[in-house]
# Entry
Amino acid sequence: MLRFKIIFSISILSFLLIGTSFVKNQTRQIEKKIFSLSNLVINQEKNLSELQLDFSYLSSPAMIEMKIENLDYNQYFPIQNSKIFLSITSFTDLQNKLAIKKDHEKKK
# Structure
């Protein structure tokens, strides 16, 4: 009976030691993930505050007025209908035709 108690005590002790080290390692990994995610959140919050500052500066009435004045100097034209593609296949077909045409011109 004494031998059974000793073996049982040793097995429980070894199980608890192994379980403790396993839990400790898992906890360390989780803490590292939490630390990296918290750094990511802090960086994103900094970016957000900078973007809000940029937005408030760029959307101020004086800046908008300056942008409108600059628009008068540039000449803008509407896009021609021939440059608008209804699907990607029509665009790729045109690109293929142009590539074939360039190849023929290079051969001549």
